Amino acid sequence: MTAPLLLGIGLLGGAGAVARYLVDTVAGPRTRRGFPRGILVVNLSGALLLGVLLGASVQGDAQRLLAGGLLGAYTTFSTWMFDSHRLATGGRRGQAALNLLAGLALGLLAVWLGRELGRLA
Amino acid sequence: MGYGPRVADPASRPRADARTLAAIFAGGCVGAMVRAELSVALPYESGHWPWATLLVNVAGAFVLGWVITRVEDGREPFAHAGRLLGTGVCGALTTFSTLQIELLEMLDDDRYGLAAAYVLASIAAGLAAVALATRLTRRGSSAPEPA
Asked: Which of A7, A21, B93, B138 is the most buried (most CB within 10 A)?
């Protein structure tokens, strides 16, 4: 990977992380006691957009920058796991299961839908 | 709102001041570049086990579990560590969208067993990583090496 490409991935990754934080701030619960819907919104919207890129056959450097850099960093796995763990250990196993299952099922639906939309483009 | 400054409470609502955003941006740059390099080192081929994604996701879940537990317990001296290392580095190092695309492509290829194994392994290992990091941190053992 060339240095400019790596740098571009880094900058877009930084932007993706900031976007994740801002969306989570707006869409998330008011306290950590609430259901972590903000990260769900982030992950589902990112999965939808990644699907669009895939459906539109975006490849090469553009794919690395947008899919790998921006959307890869915008969406996140670690907080999804962390929140699920804290819900489960905090006596809210039902919400933990809902967080995992909703993320998975709706995430798959989102990438599929995005890919269909991207193919229309 | 407007009831005076917030104390350092992990339950408080996140804020969007310039330092917080700068920490997240810097961390996000690092996380995305590490993931990109790893995806070159461990290239993913359709129909195969996505080692690169699994590795970054589980490692990132472990480090996030470590740093946020320290923040929760008031043991993190650097005020922006949770944002820089957690939200920034771990958030960007790990990825949800790539995982979902890999799953969708496995389902496209009718590789249901592979898809089920991959998703179960990701979630089981991700939860186990958070649990282990939390336990190690609360045991007061020295900080584990970022995997």
From this structure: B93
